[in-house]
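Acyl-CoA synthetase (Streptomyces capoamus), 498 aa
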Amino acid sequence: MTQGQGSTVDGVLRRSARRTPARTAVEYGDRAWTYQELDEAVSRAASVLLGEGLTAGDRVGSYGHNSDAYLIGFLACARAGLVHVPVNQNLTGDDLAYIVGQSGSSLVLADPALADRLPAGVRTLPLRDTGDCLLARLATAPVYEGPEPRTEDLVQLLYTSGTTALPKGAMMTHRALVHEYLSAITALDLSAGDRPAHALPLYHSAQLHVFLLPCLAVGATNLILDGPDGDRLLDLIEAGRVDSLFAPPTVWIGLAGRPDFATRDLSGLRKAYYGASVMPVPVLERLRERLPGLAFYNCFGQSEIGPLATVLAPDEHAGRMDSCGRPVLFVDARVVDEHGEEVPAGTAGEIVYRSPQLCEGYWNKPEETAEAFRDGWFRSGDLAVRDAEGYFTVVDRVKDVINSGGVLVASRQVEDALYSHEAVADAAVIGLPDERWIEAVTAVVVPRGEVTQEQLVEHVKQRLAPFKAPKRVLFVDELPRNASGKVLKRELRDRFGA
């Protein structure tokens, strides 16, 4: 293999394999891979992909559930100079066809159980579970000895969650992701002695790029799970096989709500990471009360920045549990007004970023790229406040702020007030068109037990200014969420705003 600078995604694994070749790198089901075995598997998988007629720069879709094969497929694309396109395994129909088509994927690595969902004519290669799958071919494939990709080459198209519009493919380079890995390692205190469980979908940038790849970089032993099954997670923690876990608030809420959560021995869990969507402060308070010795980290960011931008460390939670922390190692952030001018501390505005972690723009979307990157800064779309000590607190998404009678209301603040009521299991606050108020503050609530609209409105009024209280409360069985746990408020507005 032609040697280059080594600042590549696959180079992260190569260095760990040389440093600790015999240490277990990944476990999945009944399979385990040492670092040396995983590195060799990636090289052989790179040869398999290039043997399919692909050339450097071609896009390769990946449409599968969590597995060791999924990870090997991603790293093989990186080593072969291909551009990996992770696809939400829950997508079907037009949504699935859009990402495969818009990315121009020449081949899709697919779990056999999902392959028939793909559009007709799309070329596929099974990831696993067949005699001709990627894993099965490793035994006879040669070790890849071609040139290393360059640090500035694209390695992945990370499609945004599409909560407000069609997804956009953030163009990530090797250089951007390697910088993000180092930011994650330093901010999240990752080390070779960690035993993390990776339970969220690997197509999602948080699980893959904030945790799994940085954990491979430091030489940890990584357990890949099919999903965040509560029974399985608690069993693994009690057995001492898992000591750190990342999960969105929805999963932590589910774990905290289990009847056995108060009685299981969870003393072996050392680090708890949360993010991908906003954690309600009342829920975090309950978790910290139950597990006072557990180190909690709030991870915040978005796909376009790799995705980690800020972290609130365990020793920073006291007195600022609604904060998402301060920027990580390679991120420069500030809060600006609609003209791009920085606002004083304590004033709400949009977070903007400069960072080597940032994407190069959006794939084949020059207008959206120009709109997002202005004056050398990336516009995040997140409304936040920065205090005098440099801590950021996200108020809302800019598009989710409610204009009620000419006064702006942040939905997160109202949601936190609702979550402090014992009968609220889940909640989202949106603005719906109203002749009098322009937008009426509307709460969509999943109840836990009996509760009325009047009781919840009064509960909020006791905690916030009366004008922030919901004008209406709608009760539902569940809220629509994407795989990372973010509430799809666009769907709620469409459903109830007609």
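Residues 1-399 form a domain with the Rossmann fold fold (CATH 3.40.50.12780). The first helix runs from residue 9 to 19. ok done for today
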